[in-house]
Amino acid sequence: MAIRILPEELIDQIAAGEVIERPASVVKELIENSLDAGARRIEVDIERGGSSLVRVRDDGGGMQPEEVALALARHATSKIASLEDLASVRTLGFRGEALPSIASVSRLRLLSRAAGAEHGTEVVAEAGSARPARPAAHAPGTTVEVRDLFFNVPARRKFVRTEATELGHIVRLVERLALSRPDVSFRLRHGERTLLTAPAETGVERPDARLRAVLGEPFLEHCVAVEQRGGPLSLEGWIGLPTAARAQADQQFWFVNGRAVRDRVLMNAARMAYRDVLFHGRHPAYVLYLTIDPQLVDVNAHPAKLEVRFRESRAVHDFIFRALERTLAATRPQPSVSANELVPVSLARVTPQALRSMPRPGAGLALGTSARESLHGAVVRDAPASSAIELPAAQPELTDRPLGTALAQLHGIYILAQDREGLLVIDMHAAHERVLYEQLKAQRAQGSIASQLLLAPVTVELKSHELDAALEQRAEFTRAGFEIDALGPTRLVVRRVPALSVGVDPAALLRETLAAGELGAGSHHLEAAADRLLATLACRTAVHAHRRLTLPEMDALLREMERTDRANQCNHGRPTWTRLTMRELDQLFLRGR
Fold first, then answer.
1. What is the pLDDT of residues 70-129, one digit of tens each?
2. d(Cα 225, Cα 230) in Å, to the nearest integer?
3. Domains in the chain: boundaries
4. Dist. CA 112–CA 69, nearest whole Å
5. What is the CATH architecture assignment of 427-593?
6. DSSP state of 171
7. Which fold has domain 216-329?
8. Residue 181, Cβ neighbours under 10 Å: how many?
9. Which residues contact 155 (CB under 8 A, 6 or more apart)?
10. Which residues contact 362 (CB under 8 A, 6 or more apart)?
11. Max CA-CA distance within the chain?
12. Which residues lie across from 414 on neighbouring strands?
């Protein structure tokens, strides 16, 4: 086939294929134009999932009559004029391709009226062919109607999914754009149904209403604020607590200079920040706004402007990772009520039968020493004939400590504690695992982890590839307190172990670490690989189920948890403790009804 110049109609349709993938793409481009025009109210109407109709109406600055027809010409834009402008783009749109691309694959009607103009102007285009502009009645602002998308491109129309699928993409897109601009009012309707109503936020207060409208009340109840600045970078927003992680990554929103993006650098930084506190297979929820000097980010990296490129991507990644990691480090037990909100009960009425049937240590409930003495050391005077005995309650000190005071151990697995608000249940192993893990990381940061020389070296039989993996990570094993060497193609000798692991079979620990691929090539970050080794070590050396603890030991663990970063979750992301308030306990026993 001979070389030839493509016809303009085909050129327009090829360009449209890069920008307009589905009805949601039309909605995105039109809303971004409205935001660039200074709109404070945007209304979106959809029919048949956007294939039949997409209408976007705004109250922005509008266009002068001579600009309306020009807006449908390719590469016509008011947002940049030179290469220097492109290097520091602050608007959402700048290519001048959206409207002509949409017009080339649909039936488009554009109405606009500039502020102060006597009337509006209308232009109609079909398959890229525009009619002359004419006066029309219209309020200040702009309305764009797009009907019969891809009617002239049957091959593209076949790729449009069902009405429900396409509508779902549109809803998620509008929600994302609504989160990007809380100061703008959004409304989305599909036929007669209103799918989203998000009034504009005013003032500088936290935009609870916008977050509630898009993400719902559960996100608000389980998120913490983020605010970090460093050099040309600023990060603000909200991140969900690890305990509120989701099965899907459907509530992860990134905005760069107000632009909604899906960027791998940003998402990877957030994923790494959660790596120590997230349960396997779960995804965090967050809404994060990154502000950066426009000259340090390239927004011209993707036809649909969904991706960006950072000039210093490693610096951006580390800034975000550290900011989120510091925020998540504060997820430790916190006081929930003040000292004067709850008055403890001073007396308990116990029958002799109940006293005799109370579980003894070894029968599931292990009472601490002070609790046992309080019960069995009670003096009974003038007992009534009914045999009912009034005893001073086993009332430990009610302090304002976040995890209260230890009462007992349940089935050798859970610690029961009491604070001013109610009953706390602590997973003994999970809590100790987190404490040990953070201690190991702190020791490594100071140089090396305390270790102990074995009296007799231990030989471990491994597969050849496991031995190679261990030797490749020998430096990390050394920093973790191990001393290992190869004795042959399948034999490894262990001469030194971390001091915390004394009593744990070093061969079993090494096999577990290597078999699970903890240090394998799947980890692209050396620090993450080293942390996995320490996490495995902490898990193996933490106190395990059915280990009996004394009250002082229980209290010591609670106090360590209160001082330990990320103590609300174990190394695998499971919660370490929970609280039953007096109100919840009263509801269980129907008290007050």
1. 888 776 666 554 556 555 566 675 556 788 889 999 999 999 999 889 999 999 999 888
2. 17
3. 8-198, 216-329, 427-593
4. 10
5. 2-Layer Sandwich (3.30)
6. H
7. Ribosomal Protein S5; domain 2 (3.30.230)
8. 22
9. none
10. none
11. 115
12. 410, 427
